[in-house]
Specification:
This protein is α/β, with parallel strands linked by helices. The chain has helices spanning about 40-45, 75-90, 110-125, 185-190, 220-225, 255-260, 265, and strands spanning about 55, 65-70, 95-105, 130-135, 140, 155, 160, 180, 240, 280-285, 290-295. The structure holds uridine-diphosphate-N-acetylgalactosamine (UD2) and manganese (II) ion. Manganese (II) ion binds near residues 139, 241 and 244. Belongs to the glycosyltransferase 7 family.
């Protein structure tokens, strides 16, 4: 019989720290989105994941506790693929983690960045030991498990080589898709803006092709805070995005370019320190925690 090693107490063995490079990673992965993915199957395949989508390695003590935050509305079929692929990857990476799906209530304009702010605060309410926050689109799956979902001494950009961009970085300051900051980095940039409604938020302002060069400093919050983006090797940071049309109520925001230029003026007052919202429901599902939230609507 197994020893109750997970239970705290005077007799619980102290597990060694998790290794920097986890053994048992497989490298390049085959990722495809052809046949539908029933949630029951994903649950069956991930018995070690605890209620709410929590996981702790059984054989070592990780240095960080990672909250994965997913902005969400009406993408259930994408979420099932995401859970199917990501749980085994994160497990192999020997992470202590939790999955938070931040579901925007209602049909007003979508606001990805504000949902991410909500995710940061709500994850910390669930577990104050979270010290690494990874913000991921629901439709992005890494193609290589050596792309470690951890935080470092600079903000980390994970999704650097996407199939839809020909597996290249679309432009130098690109920080979209999947990115991670530790708690102090996140607070240093005052989180994300709450005022970018619609498509083209802070993290992905690559909106018009050809304008990339003029938008090369796209994450002014990070550079204004004196930090630099860290990235994996281009051969490892590869991703597949599930093909999709633009959602309803997520139209490109025509003010996105002027807004980003004003970041220097607005970032102190608009961010994690000023986010207003109302949590409508927290529900712990077998593979993730769903937090449904009313974030209001654009003025
Ligand atoms: C790009 C960026 C994304 C973000 C966005 C601009 C990449 C790979 N991704 O994504 O990070 O900067 O541009 O806002 O560069 N979502 C819902 N329901 C909705 C609308 C959005 O769940 O109705 C969520 C979902 O997690 C989705 C994410 O928001 O993956 C980004 O929206 P998108 O996938 O429509 O935008 P996309 O692919 O152009
Ligand atoms: Mn997408």
């Amino acid at each position: 019989p197994e020893a109750p090693s997970a239970r705290p107490g005077p007799t619980a063995p102290v597990l060694p720290p998790c290794p920097d490079s986890p053994p048992g990673l497989v490298g390049r992965l085959l990722i495809e989105f052809t046949s539908p993915m029933p949630l029951e199957r994903v649950q069956r395949e991930n018995p070690g994941v605890l209620l709410g989508g929590r996981y702790t390695p059984p054989d070592c003590t990780p240095a960080q506790t990672v909250a994965v935050i997913i902005p969400f509305r009406h993408r259930e079929h994408h979420l099932r693929y995401w859970l199917h692929y990501l749980h085994p990857i994160l497990r192999r990476q020997r992470l202590r983690y939790g999955i938070y799906v931040i579901n925007q209530h209602g049909e007003d304009t979508f606001n990805r960045a504000k949902l991410l702010n909500v995710g940061f605060l709500e994850a910390l309410k669930e577990d104050s030991t979270y010290n690494c926050f990874i913000f991921s689109d629901v439709d992005l799956v890494p193609m290589d498990d050596r792309n470690l979902y951890r935080c470092g001494d600079q903000p980390r950009h994970f999704a650097i080589a996407m199939d839809k961009f020909g597996f290249r970085l679309p432009y130098a300051g690109y920080f979209g898709g999947v990115s991670g900051l530790n708690k102090s980095q996140f607070l240093r940039i005052n989180g994300f803006p709450n005022e970018y409604w619609g498509w083209g938020d802070w993290a992905g302002l690559f909106a018009h092709p050809g304008a990339h060069s003029s938008l090369a400093v796209l994450d002014p919050r990070i550079s204004l805070a004196g930090m630099k983006i860290s990235r994996p090797d281009i051969r490892i940071g590869r991703y597949r995005m599930i093909k999709h049309d633009r959602d309803k109520h997520n139209e490109p925001n025509p003010q996105r370019f002027t807004k980003i230029q004003n970041t220097k003026l607005t970032m102190k007052r608009d961010g994690i320190g000023s986010v207003r919202y109302q949590v409508l429901e927290v529900s712990r599902q077998p593979l993730f925690t769903n937090i449904t939230v009313d974030i209001g609507r654009p003025p």
